[in-house]
């Protein structure tokens, strides 16, 4: 397959009025964090991703000299383009500038978010293989109130359905370009590109955002940004392991890795007995110190009788999100003489990826026989072993 062309629009044409501080003349995107201008950091984050083929920065008409003073040089950097009076208008200016090159994909990024990681950018690109749009989000952790007059609480929202949107937001170029062109003709301001995509009827998938991917909006966000750089708000990596065994009984199929595989036996157990998903689920629980599958889904509870094990895996993924964590990678090994696992590995990776909302490149499924030794060798059952690597906010 032809490599995809992936362009990036970095919108830097705002005035940064809310972040302005007395005695500091530079707008926020030209101020420094850790000695480097915010905009330089944002652009560098995308230059660090080899799949990115071109980057266009949208600047304010008064900031030409400031942009030139950054001294940025790279073959993939296009000349800056002047933006409009709103973020929406600035993005459209970027899309128009890219139209002659017509890239396959476009990522739209706020200059004011200097800490998007290469991994986050990769996840957004990865999600675009299955979705028309990809949006990094974080679950809302504060209780959210609605007020009709700004002084009295009117209602409390159900935060379980609320997510904070970040950038980069990724799209197929042609689709977001025509959506933006149409949006420019209606009397409505859209605050992000995902909202324009939703309005145009495009499907936008959520990928896990990052706590460190802050938008510098207010003066104290600079201190916050310095703390991110010095590691005070850094993430740490946790490892969890999972192990599961189920015995065979007469039957005609097994569930493994979320896939139904015809076989001469079935696996005995309370749920669908998917050993591979059980081991993975326990590995995730283990990495975040959240007990094990039996604690959350007791076998004594009849509601889990025959349950699809994707339900358990999804729950573990939700606990990771609640802990503001993110799955780095998962690895499971299935030990059995049969059925043959290899033909089903791609489908298993897809089910696991979709259940957890992560890229399938973060998932490995492997299989081995035990050389006819032991209970797996005698075809009495199947074993699965898994490990999970998960990043969570550092605790000291
Ligand atoms: N006319 C505009 C307005 C905003 N942006 C960009 O959109 C991003 C998100 O906007 P925001 O953080 O609100 O920036 P400002 O508009 O600069 O901030 P303020 O509203 O405080 O002036 C920023 O990188 C900003 O430079 C833009 O390119 N063109
Ligand atoms: C696009 C955005 O970063 C998503 O959170 C945000 O909406 C941009 O900031 P603004 O203040 O709404 O312009």
From TrEMBL:
GO terms for molecular function: 2-C-methyl-D-erythritol 2,4-cyclodiphosphate synthase activity; 2-C-methyl-D-erythritol 4-phosphate cytidylyltransferase activity; metal ion binding. Residues 1-237 are annotated as: 2-C-methyl-D-erythritol 4-phosphate cytidylyltransferase. Bifunctional enzyme that catalyzes the formation of 4-diphosphocytidyl-2-C-methyl-D-erythritol from CTP and 2-C-methyl-D-erythritol 4-phosphate (MEP) (IspD), and catalyzes the conversion of 4-diphosphocytidyl-2-C-methyl-D-erythritol 2-phosphate (CDP-ME2P) to 2-C-methyl-D-erythritol 2,4-cyclodiphosphate (ME-CPP) with a corresponding release of cytidine 5-monophosphate (CMP) (IspF). 4-CDP-2-C-methyl-D-erythritol 2-phosphate binds at residues 244-246, 270-271, 292-294, 368-371, 375, 378. Pathway: Isoprenoid biosynthesis; isopentenyl diphosphate biosynthesis via DXP pathway; isopentenyl diphosphate from 1-deoxy-D-xylulose 5-phosphate: step 4/6; Isoprenoid biosynthesis; isopentenyl diphosphate biosynthesis via DXP pathway; isopentenyl diphosphate from 1-deoxy-D-xylulose 5-phosphate: step 2/6. It catalyses: 4-CDP-2-C-methyl-D-erythritol 2-phosphate = 2-C-methyl-D-erythritol 2,4-cyclic diphosphate + CMP; 2-C-methyl-D-erythritol 4-phosphate + CTP + H(+) = 4-CDP-2-C-methyl-D-erythritol + diphosphate. Residues 238-390 form the 2-C-methyl-D-erythritol 2,4-cyclodiphosphate synthase domain. In the N-terminal section; belongs to the IspD/TarI cytidylyltransferase family. IspD subfamily. InterPro entries: IspD, IspD/F, IspD/TarI, MECDP_synthase, MECDP_synthase_sf, Nucleotide-diphossugar_trans. Its cofactor is a divalent metal cation. The record marks 159, 215 as: Positions MEP for the nucleophilic attack. A divalent metal cation binds at residues 244, 246, 278. GO terms for biological process: isopentenyl diphosphate biosynthetic process, methylerythritol 4-phosphate pathway; terpenoid biosynthetic process. The record marks 18, 28, 270, 369 as: Transition state stabilizer. This is Bifunctional enzyme IspD/IspF. Its EC number is 2.7.7.60, 4.6.1.12. Keywords: Isoprene biosynthesis, Lyase, Metal-binding, Multifunctional enzyme, Nucleotidyltransferase, Transferase. Residues 238-396 are annotated as: 2-C-methyl-D-erythritol 2,4-cyclodiphosphate synthase. It comes from Devosia litorisediminis.
């Amino acid at each position: 397959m032809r490599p995809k062309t992936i362009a990036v629009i970095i919108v830097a044409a705002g005035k940064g009025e809310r972040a302005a501080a007395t005695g500091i003349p530079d707008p926020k995107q030209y101020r420094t964090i850790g000695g480097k201008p915010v905009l330089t950091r944002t652009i560098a984050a995308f230059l660090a991703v080899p799949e990115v083929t071109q980057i266009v920065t949208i600047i304010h008409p008064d900031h030409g000299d400031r942009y030139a003073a950054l001294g940025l040089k790279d073959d993939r950097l296009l000349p800056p383009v002047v933006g409009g009076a709103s973020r929406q208008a600035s993005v459209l200016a970027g899309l128009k500038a890219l139209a002659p090159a017509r890239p396959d994909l476009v990522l739209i990024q706020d200059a004011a978010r200097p800490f998007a990681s290469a991994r986050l950018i990769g996840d957004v690109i990865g999600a675009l293989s299955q979705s028309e749009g990809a949006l990094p989000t974080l679950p809302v952790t504060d209780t959210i109130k609605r007020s009709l007059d700004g002084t009295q609480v009117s209602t409390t929202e159900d935060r379980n359905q609320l997510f904070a949107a970040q950038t980069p937001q990724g799209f197929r170029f042609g689709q977001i370009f025509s959506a933006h062109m149409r949006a420019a003709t209606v009397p409505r301001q859209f605050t992000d590109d995902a909202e324009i995509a939703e309005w145009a009827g495009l499907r936008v998938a959520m990928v896990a955002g990052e706590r460190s991917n802050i938008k510098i909006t207010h003066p104290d966000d600079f201190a916050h940004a310095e703390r991110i750089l010095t590691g005070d708000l850094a993430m740490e990596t946790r490892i969890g392991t999972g192990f599961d065994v189920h015995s065979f009984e007469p039957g005609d199929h097994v569930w493994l890795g979320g896939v139904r595989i015809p076989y001469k036996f079935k696996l005995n157990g309370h749920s669908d007995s998917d050993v591979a998903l059980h081991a993975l689920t326990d590995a995730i629980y283990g990495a975040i110190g959240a007990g094990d599958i039996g604690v959350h889904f007791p076998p004594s509870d009849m509601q889990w009788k025959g349950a699809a094990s994707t339900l358990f895996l999804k729950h573990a993924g939700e606990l990771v999100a609640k802990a503001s964590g993110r799955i780095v990678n998962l690895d499971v090994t299935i030990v059995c003489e049969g059925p043959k696992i290899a033909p089903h590995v791609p489908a298993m990776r897809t089910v696991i990826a979709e259940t957890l909302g992560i890229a399938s490149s973060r998932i490995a499924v492997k299989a081995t026989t035990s050389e006819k030794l032991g209970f797996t060798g005698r075809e009495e059952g199947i074993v699965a072993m898994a490990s999970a690597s998960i990043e969570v906010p550092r605790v000291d």
